[in-house]
Amino acid sequence: MLLPQLRRTAGGAGTDVLTAESALVEQYGDLVRLAYLVLPASLNRHRRVLLAHSLVQRALPHGRAPRSAAAVPPQRHAGQPAGRGPALDPLRTEVVRGALAHERRPRVWPARLSPPRALAPHLPLVLGLRLFPRSGGAHETALVQALSGVSAPVRAAFVLGRLDGLSDAAVRDLLVRAGAPDARGAVRAAARLEADAGEAAAALLASREFDACTVQAHPTDLLRRRRRVRLAGLLGAGVVVAAAALVSTGAAGVGAGPDGSPRPVAGAPAAKDLVRTAPGAWDDTSRVDFTAWPARGSRARDDALLNRALAAWARPGRGTRVAYAKDTARDTPPAAPHLLFAGDLDGHAVVVLYDGQRLARYDEPSGTGGARGLTVARVDDADVTTAAAVTLDVRDGRARYLLAPWVAEAGTRDLARPDTVARPLDVSGDGVTAAVPVLSSAGGCGGSRPVLQLRSSSRIAEKHAFLLAGVGDLSPVHLTYTPLPGHGTPPARQPREATGSAALLAWAHLACGLDGVRGSGVRAVNAWDFAEQDLPADGGHAVWTCSRADTWRGTGNVTVALRTDRQSTASAAAVVAGARSTAECSRFGQHVVAGAQWRAPDGHWYLLAAGSRAVTGISVDGDVRANASGRTLAVRSPHGAQVRVSARLSTGGSLAAVGAPEKPE
To answer: What global pTM score does this model have?
Structure first.
């Protein structure tokens, strides 16, 4: 192997170290991009940027080299691409090895800490700034979601093959040297990801979304830093006093008053530090998200209430019920948060804060008695629709929402009645809605399925109506729709707003399934009608739908449902398949096939199967064997038959049914 040779010879003249350093300097940006993409998406972007640079700078082999020669890269051979000499491959290996180590963190190790190998001092060290790459567009966001749903070795294989141009064999060898557990499987999975991403994969990987060398910088809390400097001389005495207080107060805990109420925490942001956006800022910015929300509510200047909310977020007391949405970081805000709302609702004081990545809602009873509550949920990369509403209060199955300042019209509609128009919703001057029912399965699927229908202001370029489903979580779920092929589908098969007649009809049959997204950190659910089929035995017409629930962390769960034109609009579609944490039914999983058993009106059972637009043939084996050309299949089948459905694609590849395990090669 080349890497051990480099390390053995580095102690001599230092020539190999110089070669490696010149290769690193020349290809520094590519190596940092590789590290940034392979590191787990669960890390925030600031930490990923710093870790990516640290991994690259620590990738050099050990040894010392002459100081004067280190800055001059050696002359390149004719026809050799920049940085593609023999020294670059060991550097890539070390970078990938370090990035993989962060995903293979031992389960017993605290999730907020790096693995032991990475606890050594990192360079560069950044104080007082938060760094993150510039945000890309919808295609880059879709790629982020797809990459976060696969393992680190697959991400490494995808980047090495599609951006760095290495062959599959070279990628496998590099992953083996880096310690990846299943190099062959990672290369196969990367090939499937590339097939879904299309020819634009390399261009997307090279975009600014993943460029950890060209970053934006925001300050941390300047006032808090100033206070920390002033208090530095008192820390020693403060530790002694705090320890004595902790022993004497027992269960009250740090950050809680004698009655368990939140009290200020040393070094945490205070009410005077909160960021307050001007009321009209959203109309003069291209970043239409929670940062553009103004501070609203009758108690937006109540410093005592705001300080209690900030203290509860920094370190809640024993009298505060705390709930973190799934996969939401539990650390304190890195800087003074934005104040979005502070006011009284139905006998409770409510405060909503935003720290750039998460929403926090603090509520406390206005009188004596009652429990305080803190709810925190991630909302990173929210946009004009997913940042359009926040749940302020949920009581007795009804919720009040705080709407974004760019929402011009608000109403409610019943998904179970697609032909009924939306009803206007009362909204106060502070953007607080009247109480409306939340989606619930208490009344069964035959009851109403209320959702918000909002329309953005004409001053927003993407003026449109959209649907948000309140399921009781802090952030309502955005509902979208992708129509059948040949029914006006855009070439890129991008989801559209679920406000048209076809979308409302589809969601009328699927709305009951929205109960399952509660508490799972879902950002949006898209209903994709991927196939239609005439049923045998005069059974009517069927539509196959794949519903994908995308989470804020990027992964997605899918369910496949079958509905017929003989069903009433209020009846639920039959769920026939499902898969968790998959790229299927997304831009990076555009090909899908599924099967289901169906009983015809004459009482006979049939096996039905259908595939998306690239499917050219369907095969069935197991208790029933059948083949059909085209995108659909229907064959008589005994009830309860065990079968495997697969499809042939126009690209020449094969495809297993949704939820089926992949066949080994």
So the answer is: 0.70
